[in-house]
Amino acid sequence: MTEYLWFLFSYLVGSIPNGYLIVKWVAGKDIRKIGREKLSGSNIIHNIGFLPGVVSGFFDIFKGILAVWGAYKLGFPENIQAIAGLFALCGQMWPIFLKFWGGRGGSVCIATILILSPKIFWPSALLWIFSKIFSKGMGAAIGMSLFCITSIVLGFYLSVESVVIFAIPAFILVLLQRLLGRPGSLSKIKDKKIILWRLLLDRDTKER
Questions:
Q1: Distance of CA 31 to the CA centre of its chain
Q2: How many CB atoms lie within 10 A of CB 8?
Q3: What is the reported pTM?
Q4: Looking at per-residue confidence, does 64 or 30 come out higher?
Q5: pLDDT band at residue 111, thresholds of 50, 70 and 90?
Q6: Using an 8 Å Cβ cutoff, are 58 and 40 in contact?
Q7: Which residues have C-beta within 8 Å of that of residue 178, sequence separation ≥ 6?
């Protein structure tokens, strides 16, 4: 019973709309209606400012850390810690406080893998960083996919069950969030190539 309460807590913490609140306070705007229409640190950096985006990203990372580390401190086994990270991820991407229209979930994924297994986190993170540097504007989406896939492969190879439990559904959820986009927008898509661009590039056009 206690673990279910922690799952609920993790989801609610993940749902805290820090990016939305920060942008409202700084610029008086709804960040979900600007740029890529996502409640994410990168969208805030590109359209509002570096500092607000970094602060928002830090809080998103903290959500994943709190969910997983808190589960560890409560004595829950590693599989429960991984599931708590998934609930925080769902909260960040589909926050109940903003009618389920949230961010990309990348920060929570990174934080969760970091706490579950630092030895898997670092090589996965390096691939993510290199992709951002060398992929000419496509790095955020491709890098997140590489991060998840590398974590899954290393999780199996190193027999870190908790990472596998988290990373496989996390990757699917991240792709689902990209595909759905703004609530109601998927059903309005006429050009089927947009579905591919959303899955690969996390945007509705091939160009940045």
A1: 16
A2: 12
A3: 0.90
A4: 64
A5: very high
A6: no
A7: 104, 141, 198, 199, 202
